[in-house]
Amino acid sequence: MSNAPPQAHPDRMLQPRRKAGITLAFHLDAPWPCYTFEGKPCGVFCAGLDAPAPLRHAIGLMIARKSMVTQEQRAAYEQNMLKNIQEHGWFCASVFDPDGKKPNISYTVGLSRTLDHPEIFIAGLPMELSHSMLWSAFDQIKAGNPPQPGKAWADILDGYDVVCQPVHASNTALDVLTSANWFWKTVEGKDEPLEMLQLFWPSGETRLFPWDKDCEQDVIDGQPRLDQVDQAL
Fold first, then answer.
1. Is residue 233 one of the residues assigned to a domain?
2. Of 79, 117, 163, 202, which is least packed with CB atoms within 10 Å of its CB?
3. Looking at the 3D structure of the chain, how many domains does it have?
4. pLDDT digits (tens, 9 = 90+) for 128-170
């Protein structure tokens, strides 16, 4: 029997500490959230729709153009976001590229209000996994264990540490995080730039991070270094 290690993969062996269900995600070509199930888009949020998660993802039509989004639908989505922040303390939004050329992005909305903490985003992992990790991050911060920039942060992934770094203000990639920006500027009425931390995950096999020597290329490619100056997603 071969003792060779398994082939490296960016999310290989990475497991959430807290399971997530249906995830909301944004198509890069449309500002409207799609429900995803097992990593695949399967429906959109519909105004007034308040069904159990297994039913929710099976209802609705995929929206592929901005012109198909009505003001009523957008308002319903925004109200749903505010309801989640009020009831659960935060909201998870995601952005995905249907062509798979750019990494998935998932991020928090509401930590700034609920926990007086910068919002957090994750790039390059399946959205359901990222959602679960962000739930764990929320739980850790609420329990008094916030991340320290550049330091290992435990209990986000089973058996692995993660690292958070502040996103540099020069990065226009923050504009992609539309829900967080809307909440910060429109709802909270803030003029200063949104504070955001990028949560970096290690290789599931070697445990190396993108800045480490000999880190696998797919781990690097999946996580743009937005803690550095003038980086893009």
1. no
2. 79
3. 1
4. 889 999 999 999 999 999 999 999 999 998 889 999 999 987 8
pLDDT (0 to 100) of residue 75: 83
Query: Domain limits at 39?
Result: 23-221
Decide if 15 is inside a domain: no
Q: What is the DSSP string of the chain?
A: ---PPPPP-TTTT--BSS---SEEEEETT-SSEEEEETTEEEEE--TT----HHHHTTSS----SGGG--HHHHHHHHHHHHHHHHHHS-EEEEEE-TTSSS--EEEEESHHHHTS--EEEEESS-HHHHHHHHHHHHHHHHTT----TTSEEEEEETTEEEEEEEPPTT-GGGGG-HHHHHIIIIIS---SPPPEEEEE---TTT---TTSTT--HHHHHTS--TTSTT---
Asked, for residue 1, whether it belongs to a domain, the answer is: no
pLDDT-derived band at 28, boundaries 50, 70, 90: very low
> Structure pTM?
0.74
